[in-house]
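Researcher: Hi, I'm a grad student and pretty new to this. My advisor asked me to get structures for two proteins we've been looking at. I'm not sure of the right format, so I'll just paste the first sequence and hope you can take it from there.
Model: That works fine. Here's the first sequence with its structure tokens right after it:
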Amino acid sequence: MAMANVYWKVLNGTGEWVGAYWSWGIMMNKYSFSIQTGKAYYCNSIPGFIRDDSTSIIGHLVKKSFDVNKEQSNAWEYQISELQSRLEACGIEGDIIFEYDIVRLGKRIDVILLIRHMVFSLEFKNGKKVFTVQDAQQAEDYALDIKNFHKESEDLYVCPILIATHAPEYAKEQSLDCYPDKQIYLQRENIETVIPKVTSLCERYGDNENIDFAKWFNSPYYPTPTIISAAVEAYSSHNLSQIANSEAGQYG
């Protein structure tokens, strides 16, 4: 594919100017760039991701990672292949991000989907055949961080999804309800059910307003008002457990 690169500048969430490379070619990808260095390993529109060469995507991921082994490389290859085919089959429009940095936790979210004004945080457990409590807590912790500290997600619906790729369909009925702050209850899915669940949730909560990708991608990390108010009240009353409860109460 013939490609062209243009150097441009974007104002990030801290008020500092940062550079980015915007690449496009005859396939008209929306973008394949990293606005803030290290913020994510790969990002693109969903149609652009579907058209992108999987080997090239893996190359981007490996290049950005400081510590990658064969197991991780194989995991990315599997995730890319499955997501490309399944997203193409359902015709979803939106954006996709791999290995998005969670500043507060020092971790990275496997995959973020920005679809119909919603944020889906996907935690893959490749090859797993069961849903564990530890994995569920990890998936929900990442979404809690996005909801409570990622400024541009404060007013968006955020949904954590744990994907045990080879597990049977989750036996218990899963509520599609959400907390008052618009965080949707954790969903447990396998590789066959994850995209249908995303589609179902989009039909329930999504709207046609577009997310400003650059603004979301570069969002500053601030505690949301609910976290701040809980902290102020707790310190005023010398009851520090209230801070933990204000966040832990969302686990359900």
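Researcher: Oh nice, that was easy. Here's the second one.
Model: And its structure:
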Amino acid sequence: MRFLRADARIGFAIALASGPAIAATPLGTLGDEFNDAATLSRWSRLYITEGWGADQLDTWDIGATQAGAMTLTPHSSVWYNNRKGALAFQAVSGDFVATTALWVRDRDAADGNAVPASPFSIAGLMARAPRPITDPATEWTAGGENYVLSGAGSGANEASFQVETKTTVDSNSVWAQQPITSGLVELQLARIGDTFITAYRAEGANWQIHDRYSRTDLPDTLQLGLVAYADHPTASGVSAYEHNSTVLSGAPDLTASFDWFRVAAVDLPPALLGLDLADAGSVTDAQLLTVLGANGIPTPVPEPATWLSLLTGLFTLGAVARRPGRTRHAPG
């Protein structure tokens, strides 16, 4: 991960040296290093394809807000149950391993890039079942959201950074969170058959499997991409339809910059073929990480140290990886 963070006092870079142990095979041309603003045209926006007419992103650019990154700054919105937020996506069919390097923080660069101030302010990866909607006023119905999410930001406890994983079946969302040390994180979302697996690597830590889901309901072709949402209190205070079709006025406090987005093909070793990957008793996290985590990231690898040497005030920060007990919630 390479980011130049700047405020009124000092500019500095934080590097997460994350070169893959084994170079995975890229899946088509789905990846984007976000070095060229012209690649924005590769991405579709959900509010356009489904005809909602409400752009839930205040900012969506490559390179303008943060050099070498795609930045999403959401209006008040959420991905939860029947409420859908912003999604920039590409279509993917079959198995895949999607990975991104994310810098998530609040909107105020002058405060040291703090945790977003409102709960459930999240950015990350999503794989979603497309819906046959072009005119929501006549075609949208409740109960039709189906997706898996791997994200990071502020969760139920907005005082600390969290990684979040979420599965939504027929608009019934269930999520789990774990604390991380900063807003610099790598996220991964993989599909292998009917199993979806989320993983993450926090700053200074090793790759961790976050969760596994059996999703036999999801179609072969999905919308795979990047999400950002914020200000759950405002977003949950209106009906789902109003939320989905309106740019809400609230207090959103999240900026998400994605350093790169890479998608790899899946190549299971013979030892894992035919096993239930959703069952930790059958396949351990360590076994999954032989094909996921660093081993699921295709080339190109992150920039070498010679690039970082051009930046002033280089700091490499690390933290001992901790894995406290997860909090899992279903809607009440």
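Researcher: Is there anything I should tell my advisor about the second?
Model: You could mention this: The two ends are 38 Å apart (CA to CA).
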